[in-house]
Structure formats: structure tokens, C-alpha cells
């Protein structure tokens, strides 16, 4: 045995020292970025926009002209994100969720919007009629919610809305409360694990 080995090697103990990662997902225009920024501000967690990481790290393989989107180099993006999320404490914002490993996230919030609200927001964003229709259909068909429910434990998936200032405050408060409980649960798990070690 060399002397550099940490005293505590219990994986549960090590995991408990990390802060949780939260994923904010949903159809484009539902309010992910606004919500994620607000939650980050309220909780002290750090906002990570996956789209920005993809751009900064150039995780694209080309452009799909017909769909008017970039083709993502998923492997490259996931490699970068893995490093960013390793220490926890991140509020991640992305319009899809099935590409991430399940173990990365402790809470999944799916932002939902009504047709009228989404229509106005996507129009204001200057989306083409086709792109707007595709996204409206995606929201009506609850594609991202189903994706989340298939990719993660149902218990950690929650739907939220982001239409008013009150929604932002309420959502941030809910996450703050969740975070407090998460820390309590972690402490309990650690104490239990320590008890078992003795
Ligand atoms: N709770 C809210 N109250 C008022 N406006 C909102 C709210 N949430 C989102 N918006 C507005 O809706 C638009 C889309 O929000 P955004 O956060 O960019 O969506 P997404 O990141 O999901 O594409 C923005 O103009 C934003 O200001
Ligand atoms: Mg956004």
C-alpha cells in the first residue's frame, strides 16, 4: 500500500461529496435557457448550455440544409460534457435528453408550453414555417417528455411550465427545496454507509 491512497474509498462516500447535476430539457422555445439561468442564479449551481459547448468545441459534422440544423458530432460533444459535469453542480440545458448517459443527472425538468405561446415565441425567433411547424408538432406529441421518461427513472422526471415571471420564481424555489432535500438524503446515506463500515 502506498501512502497516497485516500482514507475514504467507499464509492458512496465519494459520490456524496459531489453536487447534483440537473437537466432542463424540452422543445425549442419552451423556456429552457431562461429557466436554467434563473435556477442557476437562485441555487448557485452553474448553467451549462449544451448548444454553446457544441459551438465552442466545434462538435459538428456538417449542416443539414433541408432541416436547417447542424449535424452534431455526438461522441465529441459527450466527451467534452463528461469533463464539464464530472464534479456535479451543473444546470444543463438542451432540447434533447436521450443522448446523455443516465448516470449524469439527478433531476430532469421537462419544460412544456402551450401551442399559442410556442407559436409566438418561434415566430419571434424568425423560424421558417416548416421549422416552426415541426417544433409545434414535437411539443404537441410530447416527444421530449416521452424521451425523458424512457431514458431516466420516472421518479426524477418532472414537467414544468415557463410562461410568466411567477413560473420562473416558483420553479427556482422548487429546485432549491429539492436541493436541500437532496443534501439531507446524501448526509443520511453517508452516515448509514459509515455505520456499516464500522
Ligand atoms: N417564464 C417566462 N416568462 C416570460 N418569458 C419567458 C419565460 N420563459 C421563456 N420566456 C421567453 O420565451 C422565449 C424562449 O425562451 P428560451 O428560454 O430561449 O427557450 P429555449 O431555451 O427552450 O429555446 C424567450 O424570448 C424568453 O424570454
Ligand atoms: Mg435555449
Task: Give a description of the structure.
- The protein is globular, with a radius of gyration of 19 Å.
- The longest helix is centred in the C-terminal third of the chain and has 33 residues, at 165-197.
- It contains eight helices and seven strands.
- The protein is α/β, with parallel strands linked by helices.
- A five-stranded parallel β-sheet has the order 2-5-1-6-7, with helices on both faces. Strands 3-4 form a two-stranded antiparallel ribbon.
- A hairpin with a 4-residue loop joins strand 3 and strand 4.
- It starts with 10 loop residues before the first helix and ends with a helix.
- The protein has a single domain, classed as 3-Layer(aba) Sandwich (Rossmann fold).
- Adenosine-5'-diphosphate (ADP) binds next to helix 2 and helix 8.
- It is found in: Cytoplasm; Nucleus.
- This is Adenylate kinase isoenzyme 6 homolog.
- Its EC number is 2.7.4.3.
- Pfam families: AAA_18 (PF13238).
Amino acid at each position: 500500500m502506498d501512502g497516497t491512497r485516500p482514507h475514504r474509498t467507499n464509492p458512496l462516500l465519494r459520490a456524496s461529496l459531489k453536487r447534483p447535476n440537473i437537466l432542463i430539457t424540452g422543445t425549442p422555445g419552451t423556456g429552457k435557457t431562461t429557466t436554467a439561468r434563473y435556477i442557476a442564479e437562485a441555487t448557485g449551481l452553474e448553467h451549462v448550455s449544451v448548444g454553446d459547448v457544441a459551438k465552442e468545441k466545434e462538435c459538428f459534422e456538417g449542416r443539414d440544409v433541408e432541416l436547417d440544423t447542424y449535424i452534431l458530432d455526438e461522441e465529441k460533444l459527450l466527451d467534452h460534457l463528461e469533463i464539464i459535469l464530472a464534479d456535479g453542480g451543473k444546470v444543463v440545458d438542451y432540447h434533447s435528453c436521450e443522448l446523455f448517459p443516465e448516470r449524469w443527472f439527478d433531476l430532469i425538468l421537462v419544460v412544456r408550453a402551450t401551442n399559442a405561446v410556442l407559436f409566438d415565441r418561434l415566430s419571434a425567433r424568425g423560424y421558417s414555417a416548416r421549422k416552426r411547424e415541426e417544433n409545434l408538432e414535437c411539443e404537441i406529441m410530447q416527444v421530449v417528455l416521452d424521451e425523458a421518461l424512457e431514458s431516466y427513472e420516472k421518479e426524477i422526471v418532472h414537467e414544468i411550465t415557463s410562461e410568466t415571471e411567477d413560473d420562473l420564481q416558483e420553479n427556482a424555489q422548487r429546485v432549491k427545496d429539492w436541493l436541500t432535500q437532496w443534501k439531507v438524503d446524501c448526509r443520511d446515506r453517508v452516515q448509514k454507509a459509515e455505520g456499516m463500515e464500522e
